[in-house]
Amino acid sequence: MTYQSGRHFLQIPGPTDVPDRVLRAMARPTIDHRGPEFAKLTHELLNGLKQIFKTSGPVAIYPSSGTGAWEASLVNTLSPGDKVLMFETGYFATLWRNMAVKLGLDVDFVPGDWRHGVDPAMVEEKLIEDKKQNIKAVIMVHNETSTGATSRVAGVRTAIDRAGHPALFLVDTISSLGSIDYRHDEWRVDVTVGCSQKGLMLPPGLGLNAISDKALKASKSARLPKSYWDWGPMINENQSGFFPYTPSTNLLYGLRESLAMLVEEGLENVFARHRRLAESTRRAVRAWGLEILCRNPEEYSDSLTAVLMPNGYNADELREIILKKFNMSLGTGLGKLKGKILRIGHLGDFNELMLAGTLSGIEMGLALANVPFSKGGVTEALDYLHHTDKQSIRDPK
Ligand SMILES: Cc1ncc(COP(=O)(O)O)c(C=O)c1O
């Protein structure tokens, strides 16, 4: 392959661009993970992460991808044969369901069309039907990265309360944490699952669990087999600043820097920035005459936009042209959406000019690939940026 000048545009919905500040923070010698300097770092990070999850409870940091953090949330709270309620919002919700089944849980998987988020009314109905309260957990993905639909976690919390149901509440925030408003304590979520490579602007390799008192209590009697993922030794060792096994020391240096960046910008400003850039992206897509996959405007994702290709046109061919010609990676369609959609990542360390470059690359790519579309999406997006300030344009989900 010949050298492609200029910077690669990594516009997949995670892993996201790692800012230079974070890269430099990680480029330091690894220290003794059982020494005093390390203990100080652990305390700093655990406190910092609480602000991001908006919790006062414990947070576990695993040297893992997000999938590991999924497994940790299930094996620490549930027992073989437990009934759980999950929702088919897309590819990642389906993978998490498959994991739950493999672990021996009895999953009621509410079917979905991969174009909507979780319907709170459906949650209420399902829980009211469950007279004997056999359902042990309601488990959902906040931001479905495969479709660009963001479910209303607060609405689902209200549904659980209205049904008067004692089920645990587990939420995946892998592509929303640090990008879209999220409140672990206020929404009384029992386990929130996160990871490093999206809104936290880090390379892959850290899996996160924010844990409520109720979840901690459930973990004392949960019987699914666990060892590596066991919260017990993790929370215990963390108290003195250490880990039950070797942590990802250099990724943790990076995390310290990315948390500092989020605090410097202000978390609410980070959310508003994502909202504004997302809305600008959607205006470009509409101006091109293309369809946004997510059908409910209330559920539009602020971290990515999935765009449907016109019939007879393959999204992966367009993505390939854009990669070759403009050195930009866009997200592929996953599972049954393969070839049908492309996903534009607009999360993490991202700004107006990066968005302008991203949309320009897509507009030029559409023309090169002979996809039928209307010109002017970029202009529409820039007009929107011009006419808006950074204030919130939509209520939090
Ligand atoms: C919403 C969501 N959940 C879970 C995962 C799985 O995380 P990982 O690939 O880091 O294991 C992803 C990955 O993109 C995701 O987007």
Tell me what you see in this structure.
This protein has 397 residues and is of the alpha/beta class. Helices cover 41% and strands 15% of the residues. The chain is built from 13 helices and 14 strands. The strands form four sheets. Strands 2-10-9-8-5-3-4 form a seven-stranded mixed sheet, with helices on both faces. α4 links the parallel β3 and β4. α2 (36-53) crosses α9, α5 (120-129) packs parallel to α6 (153-162) and α10 runs antiparallel to α13 (377-387). The protein is globular, with a radius of gyration of 21 Å. It starts with 8 loop residues before the first strand and ends in a 10-residue tail after the last helix. The model has no long low-confidence stretch (mean pLDDT 97). The structure holds pyridoxal-5'-phosphate. Pyridoxal-5'-phosphate (PLP) binds next to α3.
